[in-house]
Amino acid sequence: MKSFIAIVLSICFVKSSGTSSDALESLPDELIELFNSNGTTWKAGKNFDGLSLSQVKKLFMSSEETLTTNVEQIWHSDSDSHKEFDARTEWPHCPSIGQIFNQGFCSPSWIYASVGQMADRICIKTGQNIDVKATVEHMMNGNYDCNSNFNTADGAKAFRYWSTKGIFIEKPEKSSNQCRCQIKMNDEYFGVSNYRLSQQLDIIKEILSRGPITFHIEVYLDLLYYKSGVYQRTSDVKLGSHLVKVIGWGVENGVDYWLIANSWGTKWGDNGFFKLKRGVGALRVGENNYSALIEKNTKVPSTMDKEQLFLVAHKCSCGCDKSW
């Protein structure tokens, strides 16, 4: 009981003083009982077993980061929407939609959500399955390491890059000892235009017609403990920001939610997924969302950067695994 009171007091100290989350050195199990006692719409449980708060904070971006918003906004024309929708069942031939990845401590928090959305939309558009993990590893190889300050990147930059440079889709071939990760003459090239959605209904219609999109969300202490239900913030302890992939929406016990695929592994949350309450101000999701339109483009640029290359699944992969 004394330890529980101490935890509550420490949380109150962080709230009242306005200090950072550094006041909490660990992720105490006592907070599970505290969050579950709030009578909210979700249940807390143990995640990140054995990890300290300072370690877990490497999974997302600094709270102080200045975001750049996509310039173009679009509005969808009025049409009927669905009360519930799950992109996994709408496009079952695209397994990347439902894949959960473990970004680990050596991957920027934006990369799996961004590459994942592009892979989903390439599959929806062309029927080709992209190997998200291999693509991420290839992009990271030579660009990032665990000592780099790469996790402060603005997620919109990735979409603006692809919008400027386009995307190559490569079908790697096995050689005697490794993958051939080189562009061949018959590889496909797609142009990309990026934009953001203005209203919640526009987001719904965008996912319904073109597939998953990416949200930039704020991360608070209680999200680290999420296990089930519809998450809505109960903590004032802000830890940072993060990019996630939104694959659908629905209603649970009268509460509207977004269905979200995270990149913290399948042991976190509901097998790696979580439901976020829809509405104005929910982790600021309406302020920063990213979408991309993929079109076949016959004008292939003369140069190719690593971030342009997407690898087709079930062939071979390049790079290294940097999960924890």
From TrEMBL:
Instruction: Write down the superkingdom of origin.
Output: Eukaryota
A Pfam family hit: Propeptide_C1
The Peptidase C1A papain C-terminal domain is annotated at: 81-294
InterPro entries named among the record's database cross-references: Papain-like_cys_pep_sf, Pept_asp_AS, Peptidase_C1A, Peptidase_C1A_C, Propeptide_C1A
Decide whether keyword Disulfide bond is in the record.
Answer: yes
Which Gene Ontology MF annotations are present?
cysteine-type endopeptidase activity
Q: Per the UniProt entry, what are the Gene Ontology biological process annotations, in alphabetical order?
A: proteolysis
**What Gene3D superfamilies does this protein's entry cite?**
Cysteine proteinases
Q: Which UniProt keywords apply?
A: Disulfide bond, Hydrolase, Protease, Signal, Thiol protease
- Key word Protease present: yes
The secretion signal range is 1-18
- Extract the SMART domains matched here: Pept_C1
**PANTHER family assigned to the protein according to its UniProt record, in alphabetical order:** CYSTEINE PROTEASE FAMILY C1-RELATED
UniProt lists the family membership as follows: Belongs to the peptidase C1 family.
What is this protein identified as? Peptidase C1A papain C-terminal domain-containing protein
Native organism: Tetranychus urticae (Two-spotted spider mite)
